[in-house]
Amino acid sequence: MELTTVKLVTIIAEAVLEEQILHDLRQLGARGYTIGTVQGEGTRGVHASEWEGKSLRIETLVSPETAEKILQHLAAVYFPHFAVIAYTMDVQVVRGEKFGV
Q: What is the pLDDT of residues 28-74, one digit of tens each?
């Protein structure tokens, strides 16, 4: 079985940003994504209430070039104003062509 190395981009963000971030991912070249609700604690502490909604983990598998574009966009547009975290790692997938590689 042939495996292809792609980038897994993980974004942790406030739920209110879901539609805008998904729109941005599509515009930047992501062909799909997975979303789940998450909770946790970070440098800003735990949310005092859930009126804002839970946080989301958005994951997408993309080429290295697309991953770089996504991270640069998040850093420029979201990091200064919202509690958004993003990271990437190499993963190996079957059917690499599905992810633009």
A: 999 999 999 998 877 766 655 455 668 899 999 999 999 999 999 99
Task: Decide: 89 and 8 in contact? Cβ < 8 Å.
Answer: yes
CA proximity to 58, closest of 89, 32, 82, 95: 32
> Six-digit token pair at 24?
């941005």
Give the pTM. Answer: 0.88
- CB within 8 Å of 32: residues ≥ 6 apart: 60, 61, 98
Scored b (16 or more CB within 10 A) or e, 60-94 reads: bbbbeebbebbbebbeeebeeeebbbbebeeeeee
